[in-house]
Write a structure and sequence with these properties.
- One of its GO terms (molecular function) is ATP binding.
- This protein has 149 residues and is α+β, with helices and mostly antiparallel strands.
- It has one domain: Heat Shock Protein 90.
- 26% of the residues lie in helices and 28% in strands.
- The protein has 3 helices and 6 strands.
């Protein structure tokens, strides 16, 4: 699935909507939506462009199954995405800390053809709502993508 999105300010919302359409009421959907929203917002704020490409794939790593969320932006900024320590009163600067916590540190960045790529892995079955522990069992689903500018 590929969509052209024209309103950069609405891309995080549109990305969450597409994600809900892709995974429905999956056990990991709430965490996937939060991770996706944070990565898309970060790409828009720091990526230097008015578009992002979003993909979601089921992936096996060893004996465990994960969702891989990937966000690509134009890569016009020289900065590398990394968590920072916001001041107490700041209203931003916590997104990558959330991503790091939800993925147990399984996320990263890179470049491809001059574009910046940020990805995150979340166990296919999501986190336990009671303990926050992750479990990674499950099958494989398809691939979907959305882009906008």
């Amino acid at each position: 699935m590929l969509k052209e999105l024209e309103n950069a300010a609405r891309l995080p919302w549109l990305a969450r909507r597409e994600l809900r359409a892709w995974v429905g009421d999956h056990a990991a959907s709430a965490d996937l939506e939060l991770i996706t929203s944070e990565l898309v917002t970060n790409a828009l704020v720091h990526g230097g462009g008015a578009w992002v490409r979003l993909s979601l794939e089921a992936e096996e790593v060893g004996a465990r199954s994960y969702w891989r969320v990937t966000v690509v932006d134009p890569g016009r900024s020289a900065s590398v995405p990394m968590p920072r320590m916001p001041a107490l009163g700041e209203t931003s600067g916590r997104g990558l800390w959330l991503v790091d916590e939800l993925t147990d540190g399984c996320w990263g960045t890179g470049t491809r053809a001059g574009e910046r790529v940020v990805w995150a892995l979340l166990p296919l079955m999501g986190r336990s709502k009671e303990t926050g522990d992750v479990s990674g069992v499950g099958g494989s689903d398809g691939v979907a993508a959305v882009s906008g500018h």
